Known about the structure:
Elements: H1 5-19, E1 32-37, H2 52-67, E2 71-73, H3 83-92, H4 96-114, H5 129-143, E3 145-148, E4 153-156, H6 157-167, E5 174-175, H7 185-190, H8 193-200, E6 206-216, E7 221-223, E8 228-229, E9 232-233, E10 241-250, H9 256-262, H10 270-280, E11 282-292, E12 298-303, E13 314-317, H11 324-327, H12 333-343, H13 348-353, E14 361-368, E15 375-380, E16 392-395, H14 401-410, H15 446-459, E17 463-469, E18 474-475, E19 488-491, E20 494-497, E21 530-532, E22 537-539, E23 549-551, H16 566-569, H17 582-588, E24 591-596, H18 604-617, E25 627-632, E26 636-646, E27 651-653, E28 663-668, H19 681-687, E29 695-697, E30 707-712, H20 723-730, H21 732-741, E31 749-750, H22 756-770, E32 771-772, E33 775-776, H23 785-803, H24 807-823, H25 829-839, H26 844-853, E34 877-884, E35 887-895, H27 900-908, H28 911-917, E36 924-928, E37 932-936
Parallel strand pairs: 1-2, 1-24, 13-15, 24-25, 26-31, 27-29, 34-37
Antiparallel strand pairs: 3-4, 3-5, 6-7, 6-10, 8-9, 10-18, 11-12, 11-14, 11-17, 13-16, 14-15, 19-20, 21-22, 21-23, 26-28, 26-30, 32-33, 34-35, 36-37
Helix pairs in contact: 1-26, 3-4, 20-21, 21-22, 21-24, 22-24, 23-24, 23-25, 25-26
Amino acid sequence: MKYTPNEIEAKWQKYWKENQTFKTENDYSKPKYYVLDMFPYPSGAGLHVGHPLGYIASDIVARYKRHQGFNVLHPQGYDSFGLPAEQYAIQTGQHPAVTTEVNIARYREQLDKIGFSFDWSREIRTSNPEYYKFTQAIFIKLFESWYNKVSDKAEVISSLVAIFEKEGNGNVVAVCDDNIATFSADEWNAYSEKEKEVVLLKYRMTYLAETEVNWCPALGTVLANDEIVNGVSERGGHAVVRKKMKQWSMRISAYADRLLSGLSEIDWSDSIKESQKNWIGKSVGASIYFNLKDSQEQIEVFTTRPDTVFGVSFVTLAPEHDLVLDITTDTQRSAVEEYIAMTSKRSERERMADVKTISGVFTGAYAVHPFTGESIEIWIGDYVLAGYGTGAVMAVPAGDERDFAFANHFGLEIKNIFDKDISEAAFTDKAGFVLNNSYFLNGLDFKAATEKVIERLQEEGKGKGKTNFRLRDAVFSRQRYWGEPFPVYYVDGMPKMIDAAHLPIVLPEVEKYLPTEEGYPPLGNAKVWAWDTVNNKVVENSNIDDVAVFPLELNTMPGWAGSSWYWLRYMDASNESQMASEEAIGYWESVDLYLGGSEHATGHLLYSRFWNKFLKDMGMVKVEEPFKKLINQGMILGTSAFVYRVDGTNTFVSKGKIGDQKVQPIHVDVSLVNNASELNLEGFKAWRADFENATFVLEDSGSYIVGHEVEKMSKSYFNVVNPDDICNEYGADTLRLYEMFLGPLEQAKPWNTAGISGVFGFLKKLWKLYASDEGVQVIDEEPTAEMYKTLHKTIKKVIDDIEGFSFNTSVSQFMICVNELGQQKCRHRAILEPLAVILAPYVPHIAEELWSLLGKTESVSKQAFPVFEPSYLIESSKEYPVSFNGKMRFKIELAMDLNAEEIEKAVMNDERTIAQLGGKEPKKVIIVPGKIINIVG
């Protein structure tokens, strides 16, 4: 019997599918374990060998936990809305749903081929109306809620209305828009319905507002900050500009403190926690009001250093600040407008990261210092962001590096308020100084001055103490087609929610996936996109009468909408009336182990925590945090290949012949390169039309040698290795084991196909323990102590490694185990049966086949994990080296429990000792039990 992985794996994958081996029931009598992989987007490129790394690790844990008796939820689905399918639709005219379906089929085929134990009966797709009707329902919940800062939770909007009706808003402490006018109960009750809706929109958890957004003209949509890399769109590398648009936003800022404090409750890496802490950016300080000279307007500045208020020599506004164009003088207007246009092309991230470029423009306007009354120039500069604080900075060059550089660059005044030398650099410490030139703050340190100035600001109505967060409300609109429709229609310009009983509001058909000629989003092309409030259904636009039929929202939800709650749907995926039953949510609670990429630190992982906390406030979930433990798997890197084209020619020079020539390195498909780094010249010429007539400068050997570099595995680098190829040649178990063997899960590691043959050889050696050419060779005799020792060493190691997520060292132990059992000529059932079980999480196909060869009829995945017995590792004897005058002459096996006197007696009676002494009495016998025997002659 030979090991034939392709036949074996196809057989067991068919068995698992037909028997629904990994289907999970909501069996509330068993302890639960929920292991989840981050929601994949089904791209047309399919999987490369880097993608399954986290899936293999989570699958090992899921299988292991099943062996331990847990009811394991290990589901899979698809984050199937998104821009790539829409871009493809724009280019080809093919409906995104068709593209998505084709991509999903390809993904599923590849995932099944690797043998994952997913419960496919719970598969979800965000683009399925039966899924996104609950995303729409959550949006409605958010719209119908406000955040009460007193109770520190979201509450239903009707409770806020009740307060307004009884006492107005004077005593309401809420997370809401700034500068809401105070009104009495009588005034509220006298408002029209529209006036009331305008006010409530300023309090709702999701709201419409003019917002500064990242607009990508090429993609025709708004992008989130995490969708922009180096100032361009992550998808396609297109230019992004800042502009104001009316958008739906979510008050994630309401949860800033809870998002911060919750980090202490979860088992995540320090780096991810730190990323979220920095993104949320909690700052304690003060708001200070600077009146505009000769105007009733006021600039509010947030600062963490109110103690330095007397060092202010100018004020800097973000170029996007609302007041900029209003206060700019005629003489400065053209310079200001030109600067605003220039900075609109830079993303917030780019501006934050660029600490070297100094730029700005004087507006021509002046502010008034709140204490001294002196005039202060107002500038704009792109180092100030409209989305952080108030979009205004009181510049203190003496105490801030950027302000210092800005003042020096433009020749502005630098007031020294410290007892320190600031001629070369700003003094930025919060300790080791007292203030000078600071009026009533002179002689005080940071803490005392901060307390005193806040007290004075509040007394004089010129400011107040404040805690601020960098975290901004999240823009929740996208001007594209392939996304969740909003359950929103408009009456007299005001948004109204469609009752949840009428969901889903299904994405309509459109002829074009581009924005309309008038600039409306793609849904503006839909002909059947109006809401009939009498019949509660979507009807043709021609029926709009603004009496009973009204226009629907044209934007769609962003990519993160469906992924912000999907783990809850898996708990009860077939429930048609609820996102999941209360009983199911109470049982599964949250994800015990979550695996995915660290690139989602400030996107998905933050948004999903926000939605989970909101749903808890609404009584829909039981716990604050959705993911107890998070592991970010490292990236598998590809080995890229390069050819070298002589500049301005179609001649390619082999690596060893470049010399002093100016050449351009070009990525080449790694499939055209052999293990000796030799390029297939004919294949290369056929690869791309522009290389058809290429000429080559070869090595003396007659070969063209490419260069190599280890970098991200990417289709654009042509260094992708298809897992299908590995599975076809070596089998999925080899792929699974090799990916775990590459190194620690959380580290990046290069892929080297050459190493796979070693792992494949190990599996063939494992097979030979159980079967020979003649058939199964297992015997029922009692194993030796050494065989038990080898087995239980492995059991202990595998348990420790899986629970510690150190999968690579388990693979090493498997290899040691099989080698030792081979040397011990082990064919013993009592060893080989448990060995098949402990191997099963890693290499499930061969484990199932070996289990079957042992005469078993039930799946190996249903078996209990072997129990580690420490007694098998306790040494009962010790092999002592016996030395004479310090030189080892022979070894003797003695019981471990012998004392020094008993050891000496056994050694002195040994024939080899008698021969060594030759009848002489030793001068001394040195015995250290368990370590040393030395006879001094």
